[in-house]
Each structure stands twice: as structure tokens, then as C-alpha cells.
Amino acid sequence: ITVTVDVSDVAGNHAGSNSVQVVLDQTFPTIVVSTPISADNLVNAVEDDGISVSGSTNGVEDGQTVTVTISDAVSSVTGSSVVNSNTYSVTGVDVSGLNEGAISVVAAVSDLAGNTASSAPVSFTLDQTAPTATPIPSGASDDGAFDDTDLSGGQPVVTFSTEVDAQVVVTLTGPNGAIVFGDPIATGANDDTTII
Question: What is the pLDDT along the chain (196 residues), one digit of tens a residue?
Fold first, then answer.
């Protein structure tokens, strides 16, 4: 678009005209956050001090700033990067101070004309608490130890509770550190698992 200015004073003196070219941009850009966040969409206590968020844009010039906001239900943290060939990558965002559970991620950007865009929110799970499992020997034992009576049926059965979907590895060792029963088989679901 050409803008021309032509000025004269009340005496009729003419200053001449001056023109400039401006670009009319009324198209809103778009921005997307790539998923999953982290390899499995789960962020643990080892990963929570420096996660990365990447994605793509459309209609945004190189060098424009992308701001990523990562929020729990109470508070949020931000990180930023710049657009390069319609992509961006925000690295090293510390989410360790957020509350565990579902975490929302939103990216925002504007083009050179000032048209703004926000991504659809995506989420990941923040889990910073290590699971615990206290084995409870079954059978005749009530003292936390296996004796001949407990083992009379063959391999012992150990039942314990832990959080849902926790990976369980159980090794039974003798007094000298020798493995008494190796390669246990986990059965059950949710938070009640029996190792046979």
C-alpha cells in the first residue's frame, strides 16, 4: 500500500509530496506445540529442571520471539526462543517448582505486523515422587522372614502395594547375597501386585 503526504501552508507554499510503502498484513499466524513433551509425556524428578518444548509456526517471520508458558493449576513458568524457518525450540525450562500432576503447555507468538497467535494447550504429567513398596511375605510368615513352613509350597509369594503403573523388579537374596529366587513374575494390576 502506498501512503502519500502532500502539504502546503495557508500562504500557498507547497512542500511537495512524499510517499512511503507499507505492507497490509491482516492474516493471523498459527503456532503448534509438538508432542509428546519428553519421550513419554512423563517428566520425573531427574528431568524436571530442564525440559524442552518445540513446535512449528506458519506465517511468522524468522527472528520473532516465541514464549512458552507451562502451568499447573496454581502457578506457571515461561521460556522463550526465536522462530527459524517456521520452527522453534525452547530448552532448559525448569518445572521443578510446579505441582505434580497434569501440566499445561501453551506457546504464543506474533508476526512483524503484530498479529498474534496462541497454540492449543497440550499437557504432560509431572511426577517427582519416587514410588515405595513394602513387601509382605504371605503364607505362615508374620515376622517378615521366610522359614521352612513358608517355603513348603515351593517359591514364596510376596505381595505389596505401590503406585499405579510403577515398574517392579524384585530379587530375593540369601544371607550371603546369593540370589535365592531370580526372575520373578509380576501379576496383578493397578496398585496391588503379587510377585510369584
Answer: 787 788 888 887 887 778 887 776 668 899 999 999 988 899 999 999 999 999 999 999 999 999 999 999 899 999 999 999 999 999 999 999 999 999 999 999 999 988 999 999 999 999 998 877 666 555 545 555 666 665 555 556 666 666 666 666 666 666 666 555 444 444 444 444 444 4
> ∠ CA 21-22-24 to the nearest 5 degrees?
140
For cell 512449528, the residue is: 56
What CA–CA distance (Å, rounded) separates 150 from 133? 21
CA-nearest of 126, 129, 68 to 99 is 126
DSSP string, 68-92: EEEE-SS-EEEEEEE-BTTEEEEEE
The span from the CA of 70 to the CA of 121, in Å, is 10
Measured distance CA(51)–CA(131) in Å, rounded: 22
Q: In angstroms, how far is CA 62 from the centroid of its own chain?
A: 25
